[in-house]
Amino acid sequence: MYAYQQTPEASVLTGRIDPSPGCPSNGTLTKVGTGEQLAFGEAMFELPLGTDAGDWYLSSFTVLDQNGGPAQTRTFQPAAPYLLRVLDPTRITSTAPASTVGYGDKVAVSGYLEGWTAADGWQRLAGRDLAIRTGNGVDGHPDVPTVTDADGAYALTVPIYSSFSGVAIFAGDDQWLRSGSSNYTQVHGLVSVAVSDRTPAVGQRVAVTGSVAPGAVPVWIERLVDSEWTKVTATVTAGTDGRYRLTYRPTSRGVHQLRVWNDGTEPEGRMGVQPYAKEFTLTVHR
Q1: What pTM was estimated for this model as a whole?
Q2: Do residues 151 and 127 lie in contact, with contact meaning Cβ atoms separated by under 8 Å?
């Protein structure tokens, strides 16, 4: 349980229960020494400026069942981790330029970490541990650790696998609140295409092979018809190494504008990877 001043102009401390249960909830704070109580909802509360750490504690917390089942309530004593912590806010400013890169490409990330106190305002924070996110949090790609220099800055090169990656995370500590930087990099899937015959006859089977990154994802072929892309093959799942094989059988003569495609929705590990697209043409004769 912690509270902090959201902005220098804020007139109250904003408090949170962490982690939030992610469903409807309510609870009660009790003031140490006086027994005064404060009810709150949705794991958030407000306290007056000047409130000190340890002044309040979480005395009860209730989680409501969204399916209509019984609510679950727990009560606590005035001891850690249920005693209030009052933290100073931090912020991370990214100085890396916006870019569009391929899946797994290395990019330069940079920025600086600052902390705010009422006495000193915003000041750079040196020697603080940061984590640079390289994946989307569920794809197994680990964060890369780094430390801010004497000017509170960081700069390094990391591979990134999602448009949610490339951000710097400060986990916070006993004084400073957790924070994260913004991200200005878009990650696109990589596709290669090889075609067995670019001048096939009508009805002839054409093998389309290649690889995608990451692997083990569904791909298919679409054709541009009247300014709209239309799916024209069955979906196949690429192997874990990313290799795929599709078969296209043209039904009319002329130039066929085609693309290997994945819409970016599967699987969960691909969240943050923009859709695959690799276009090619066939000239079909009778």
Answers
A1: 0.80
A2: no
- Could you give the strand order of the β-sheet that contains 190-195, starting from the edge strand earlier in sequence? 190-195, 206-213, 243-248
Report d(CA 257, CA 283) in Å as an integer.
9
At 284 the three-state DSSP class reads strand
pLDDT of 269 reads 64
b or e along 68-84 (b: 16 or more beta carbons within 10 Å of the residue's beta carbon)? eeeeeeeebebeeebbb
Rounded Cα gap, residues 200 and 180, in angstroms: 53
**Residue segments in the chain with a per-residue pLDDT below the cut of 70:** 263-269
Q: List beta partners, residue 107.
A: 158
Q: Which domains does the chain possess?
A: 2-87 (no CATH), 90-187 (2.60.40.10), 190-284 (2.60.40.150)
- Angle value at C-alpha 183, between 176 and 164, nearest 5 degrees: 100
CA distance linking residue 172 with residue 91, whole number of Å: 11
Q: Nearest-5° angle of CA 99, CA 111, CA 12?
A: 115
| Percent helix, percent strand, percent coil in the chain, to nearest 5 | 0, 50, 45
Q: Between the CA of residue 33 and those of 54, 157, 187, what are the distances in Å?
A: 10, 52, 54
Q: Which residue has the tokens 């904003």?
A: 14
Q: 158-189 pLDDT, tens per residue?
A: 999 999 899 999 999 999 999 999 988 889 88
Q: Dig out the tokens for 219 from the structure.
A: 């791909």
> What is the reported pLDDT for 275?
76
Residues in the chain: 286
Q: How far apart are CA 10 and CA 231, in angstroms?
A: 54
Count CA atoms within 13 Å of residue 203 on its CB side.
1
| 177 burial type by CB count under 10 A (0-12 exposed, 13-18 middle, 19+ buried) | buried
Query: Residue 35 carries which side chain, given as an amino acid letter?
Result: G
Among candidate residues 111, 113, 204, 109, the one with its CA nearest the CA of residue 166: 109
